[in-house]
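Intended use. Records like the one below are meant for learning the mapping from a protein sequence to its folded structure. Do not use them to infer anything beyond what is encoded.
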Amino acid sequence: MDYVFDACAVIAFLNDENGADTVAGLINQAEVGADRIFMNGVQVLEVYYDRIYIKGREYAETVLESLYNSPIIILHEISREIIQETGRFKTSYALSLGDTFAAATARRLTAVLVTGDKEMKSPEEAGEFSVLWLK
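Structure written out for the chain above:
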């Protein structure tokens, strides 16, 4: 199965919050090739700057290196289709810009969005994508 991690999924894992075990399990599944995990570069950026705020740049660099060495497939290109989906999500739902990128990525990949962000409830209920809820 394909999954898209929202930034909050990785942050929950790093902070050992509710859902951390779920995220760890998905990463383990991806390591053995059973599932694929994607993150849009925007979500990676959100994790990076969150870690700078929490523990400083050196720690953030360590986390960034760990993400790049993990089985998570980081998507750096923002395609025209992602731009269009992101714009549609931003104007249709009360989502942050970062969340719209996660939503658009999940929709375009027909993947399950892994998140704890309650703002994703409206697009999920509208059938935009499936969600694996962490909280």
